[in-house]
């Protein structure tokens, strides 16, 4: 179910086209953002009544499609709203999210899928046994590496303690010599 009905949107649009400002319409109809009003008006002017209808299903966009949309928007110096209308995307904020993810993560950011991943098939017992054997071999070498790292860690701690005590002795001697001078 949508937040605002088509009749409600049409009342707001007719008010805007009659000369009321988007801010005053927001106050009158208790709409939190004037961007919503302007978006409805723009969609109505471009597509008519059909532009205001919301889709019941959320479309799934491929990574290539998202890249094409972002590329077209950059090449044509287009706004989010006009790009959404051109590609028939219901909300400009969708394109904004794609752009942010593309800028921060890159192409991999556009491949992000929402929702729970599908359930996998039951595991094959033979395959699981082979994996366990590989893990045992790997764990033996990991245990050896762990022992080496623990030994190295112990030596570094001893060295650190030695350097701290040496530093304390040097400071103590310097303090003692300063006191002698006075």
TrEMBL record:
Q: Which residue range or ranges hold the Insertion element IS150 protein InsJ-like helix-turn-helix domain?
A: 8-59, 65-117
Q: Where is this region: Disordered?
A: 114-144
Chain segments annotated as transmembrane: none
Which Gene3D superfamilies does its entry note? Winged helix-like DNA-binding domain superfamily/Winged helix DNA-binding domain
Q: Which InterPro entries match?
A: Homeodomain-like_sf (IPR009057), InsJ-like_HTH (IPR055247), IS150/IS1296_orfA-like (IPR052057), WH-like_DNA-bd_sf (IPR036388)
Q: Compositional bias (Basic and acidic residues) at which positions?
A: 123-144
Offer one Pfam family short name for this entry.
HTH_28
Q: Which family does it belong to?
A: Belongs to the IS150/IS1296 orfA family.
Protein name as it appears in the record? Transposase
Protein species of origin = Sporolactobacillus putidus
């Amino acid at each position: 179910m949508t937040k605002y009905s088509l009749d409600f949107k049409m009342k707001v649009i007719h008010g805007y086209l009659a000369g009321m400002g988007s801010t005053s319409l927001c106050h009158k109809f208790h709409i939190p953002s004037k961007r919503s009003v302007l978006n409805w008006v723009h969609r109505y002017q471009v597509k008519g009544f059909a532009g205001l209808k919301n889709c019941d299903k959320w479309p799934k966009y491929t990574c290539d499609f998202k890249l094409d949309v972002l590329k077209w928007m950059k090449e044509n110096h287009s706004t989010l709203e006009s790009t959404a209308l051109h590609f028939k995307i219901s909300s400009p904020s969708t394109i904004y999210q794609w752009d942010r993810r593309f800028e921060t993560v890159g192409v991999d950011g556009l491949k992000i899928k929402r929702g729970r991943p599908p359930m996998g098939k039951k595991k094959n017992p033979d395959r699981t046994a082979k994996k366990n054997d590989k893990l045992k071999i790997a764990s033996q070498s990991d245990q050896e590496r762990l022992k080496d790292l623990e030994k190295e860690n112990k030596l570094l701690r001893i060295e650190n303690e030695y350097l701290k005590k040496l530093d304390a002795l040097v400071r103590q001697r310097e303090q003692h010599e300063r006191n002698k001078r006075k």
